[in-house]
């Protein structure tokens, strides 16, 4: 027997097997300045990978993927887009105080491009002053300059699939910008100037934050100031045909903020009985919060058109799997107005738990002062409130919260 040949064959097989396995692994090491907590996450469409950050801000992560993919790197509340390929060995450096300006990648030119693209997007005002005050031809040139800049950056890359995917995205979004500009073409210069003034004034106020931080009197004072600024801006155009219609819009807007503040101030506190709600499932059967008495109820308010909502799905599915034998109900309530889009998302993403359809912003968003999604709520086995702003599935705190009530 030729032992030399057998040994060589075994070595060749072993080397091939190891190499083949390594080719599907992605290795990411990183350094975080001003770290926020001790965890980092890498989130794909169907999986979430996580690892710890040491005292110096360093971390190392290895996971297996079958094909190239866009992912999100997340640390604390901060996140950014990346692009990975099987076999990648990437080095990532970041300062959380200026995440987008400081993030750098080694051995991932696609991720570097995405970081540059994000910064460029922040500098451009496609939906701001140029949209309202530029002439149509001038706005077209503004958009073309953006497309040219990104195309030049893409031309430095060797990944044809990534380049073609990004070019499609660029063309798609810029076409939407041009259509939005064209949709404004029937409005007069005066009306467009007024609309931009309204946007500029509104940017001075973060009412979603003020609702929570101010008492009723303080909020009313700020809201009245906002109202006066809007009316003052409108009064310049008293002779315009659209004056009365815009005046009505201002009054409706102010009343809507008053109602939101009222709903927030009257929302039940943790430990109090939750306000019941009822919605149909895919088959038209109605379920309410009280339907699940005896279980913890983790409520996800979401929509199929909401990107951040979709990003939570893999982690939510992992939670459901890990707690499937516990006394907890995972209840998802969609505010989609398009029922077919909601049903399609349930099928495409293989969504489990209890899926209900609210058909738009409705009683649950009013009763629990929900102004943005995704929003998660947690109720105890008697329907009492544990949290009306519970940790998201991607936040490990939710597991600790579950365990504290289940044990």
Question: Would you spell out the secondary-structure blueprint of this structure?
Answer:
Layout: H1 3-22, E1 25-33, E2 39-43, E3 48-52, E4 58-64, E5 69-75, E6 78-84, E7 89-95, H2 99-102, E8 104-106, H3 109-123, H4 129-133, H5 136-154, H6 160-183, H7 189-202, H8 207-213, H9 216-235, H10 243-265, E9 278-280, E10 286-288, E11 296-302, H11 307-322, E12 328-334, H12 339-348, E13 354-357, H13 363-367, E14 375-379, E15 385-387, H14 397-406
Parallel strand pairs: 1-7, 11-12, 12-13
Antiparallel strand pairs: 1-4, 2-3, 2-5, 5-6, 7-8, 9-10, 11-14, 14-15
Helix pairs in contact: 5-6, 7-9, 9-10
Overview features:
407 residues; 4 domains; single chain; 20% strand; alpha+beta
Task: Describe it.
This protein is of the alpha+beta class. It folds into 4 domains: 23-107, Carboxypeptidase-like, regulatory domain (Immunoglobulin-like, Sandwich); 129-183; 190-265; 278-406, Glutaredoxin. Helix content is 47%, strand content 20%. It is built from 14 helices and 15 strands. A 5-stranded mixed sheet has the order 13-12-11-14-15, covered by helices on one side. The protein has a 4-stranded mixed sheet with strand order 4-1-7-8. A 4-stranded antiparallel sheet has the order 3-2-5-6. Helix 9 runs antiparallel to helix 10 (243-265).
């Amino acid at each position: 027997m030729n032992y030399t040949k057998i040994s060589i064959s075994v070595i060749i097989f072993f080397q091939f097997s190891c190499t083949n396995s390594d080719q599907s692994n992605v290795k990411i090491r990183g350094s975080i300045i001003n770290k926020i907590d001790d965890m980092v996450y890498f989130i794909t469409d169907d999986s979430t990978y996580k690892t710890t950050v040491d005292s110096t801000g360093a971390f190392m992560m290895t996971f297996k993927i079958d094909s190239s993919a866009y992912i999100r790197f997340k640390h604390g509340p901060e996140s950014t887009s990346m692009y990975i390929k099987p076999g990648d060995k990437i080095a990532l450096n970041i300062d959380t105080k200026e995440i987008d300006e400081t993030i750098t990648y080694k051995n991932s030119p696609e991720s570097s491009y995405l970081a540059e693209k994000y910064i460029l997007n922040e500098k451009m005002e496609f939906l701001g002053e140029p949209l309202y005050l530029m002439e149509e031809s001038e706005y077209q040139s503004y958009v073309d300059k953006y497309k040219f800049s990104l195309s030049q950056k893409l031309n430095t890359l060797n990944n044809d699939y990534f380049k073609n995917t990004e070019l499609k995205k660029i063309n798609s979004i810029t076409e939407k910008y041009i259509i939005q500009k064209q949709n404004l073409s029937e409005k007069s210069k005066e009306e467009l100037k007024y609309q931009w003034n309204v946007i500029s004034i509104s940017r001075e106020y973060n009412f979603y934050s003020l609702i929570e931080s101010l008492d009723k009197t303080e909020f009313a004072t700020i809201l009245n100031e906002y109202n006066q600024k809007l009316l003052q801006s409108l009064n310049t155009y008293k002779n315009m045909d659209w004056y009365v219609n815009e005046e009505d819009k201002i009054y409706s807007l102010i009343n809507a903020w008053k109602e939101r503040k009222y709903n927030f101030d009257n929302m039940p506190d943790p430990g109090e009985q939750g306000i019941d709600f009822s919605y149909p499932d895919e088959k038209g059967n109605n379920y309410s919060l009280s339907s699940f008495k005896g279980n913890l109820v983790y409520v996800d308010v979401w929509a199929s058109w909401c990107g951040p909502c979709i990003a939570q799905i893999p982690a939510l599915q992992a939670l459901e799997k890990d707690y499937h034998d516990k006394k907890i109900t995972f209840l998802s309530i969609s505010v989609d107005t398009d029922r077919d889009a909601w049903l399609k998302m349930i099928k495409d993403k293989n969504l489990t738990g209890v899926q209900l359809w609210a058909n738009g912003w409705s009683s649950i968003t009013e009763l629990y002062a929900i102004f943005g999604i995704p929003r998660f709520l947690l109720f105890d086995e008697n329907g009492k409130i544990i949290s009306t702003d519970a940790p998201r599935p991607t936040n490990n705190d939710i597991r600790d919260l579950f365990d504290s009530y289940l044990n």
